[in-house]
Amino acid sequence: MAQKEDVSGAWYASAGLEQDVVVATKAVLSRNLANFPFPSRLTDSESEHVQSIVFDAFNYLKNADEFQAVSVSKLDSVGSKIMHERGILFDSSGKMQGLILRNDGKISCTVNTDDHLKISSFIPGLGVDAAVNSVYEIDKELQKRIQFAASYEFGYLACSVLNSGSGLSVCVNLHLPACSFLGKIQPMSKKITDDNFTFSACYGSGGRNALSGFSENGASLGCYYIVAPKSSAGGSEFDQMTSVHCAVQSILREERSARKTCSSQHLIEISNYAFRSLALAKNSFFVSLREAVDIISGVKFGKDMGLFSGIEDHQLHALLYRIQEGHLEYVLDNGKFKFEKDIQENRPRKIERLRALILQEAFENIEK
Fold it and tell me: 45-84: buried (b, 16+ CB within 10 Å) or exposed (e) per residue?
């Protein structure tokens, strides 16, 4: 039908640490320029000035040729959608928004969103230290050219009080199917929240999905969750990194223990979920985004239980990015595809068809 999609250079397609449970780690550093109002209060000329200062500062980085800068207004709808799907852009009221992206996608910076500058780093699997070190490396270089707003009392100043202080936030995306199956998510969420973290659904609520039948109302779609500190204001960067490590390691232990229980006591029911997920992927002409997330989760759970071989954790995690709407629209517009006659003029159906084909290609070497 078409050439295979090449994602070998994408950061999310690489192997990482603890990927039996952890999908990816993201560190974000919020900074604002001294002597300028926050983005929501900037005039058009001030917004343009801030963008110019930041864009210019990146030209002086040691590896400046690896970065590309663009005004967000110049992105087409597909490009904007991809940036939102990958957690790089978020809707905000700022004017003259800009985007700076490193060629490998691991580092990105937004300009004039909630804050004048947000530096983000993405690491496959668990990589708190690596992600944090990456954003601080950029921050150190930028401070040679830009004066950031700060005070002795509050530290670095941000639009949100919760992001002031260090300005650092670390988010970890986790796959927790065993804890979900055993009903451990609610007490886990309470404990994490009491420890000053947020615990949220990555892809929205799953409810009682058609594939597994065991997710409780309000459960996260695909059992994917994000853990992040509630505030950047307390403690040093080291303290914050340590607290994230402790929180995530506690979740890892609980999920792995739950998987042992699932394997010894609930293997038939989980096998039903996993085999149905694989069968649906292999025999569908069209797959919706919500179905795809649940299918990937089901196959991943099957692999965790030793039911499948022939696919690696990082390949399954990469699929979560490859089946997103914006990514598929880009592939559709830039590839050479020949679709079945009855959907050639139906773009939404072609997207769902392409999603099904990507899943089938990814799963073709799976063995039971």
Answer: ebbbebbebbbebbeebeeeeebebeebeebeebbbbbbe
